[in-house]
Amino acid sequence: MKKGEIVLVKFPFTDLSGSKLRPAMILAERAQDVLTAFITTNTNSLSNDEILIEATESNKLKQNSKLNLFKIAALRKDLVLGKLGVIEDSEILKIDIKLIQILNIKQ
Hints:
The protein has one helix at 89-102; strands at 5-12, 19-30, 33-40, 50-53, 65-76, 82-86.
């Protein structure tokens, strides 16, 4: 798995009361774990922590969605149920810039 891949996972609720099967984007990979960001089709509004991802042939999303870069979870790789598609390189650049802002990383 590599950064930008869209995968299907049981993404945990922020209160840890449960999880929901949904697409997520891989942000990073290490030994047995992946760092993932939440994807939802609820695109009614966008916060500063979210990026609109248009459904394309390469990402295999069924409809336009938003990537929430403040809802991040580290998960074991064996919890990934499958790969759906991949985000375009131009979108990954936007995501990197947004993560630098969110995490207040000094350059």
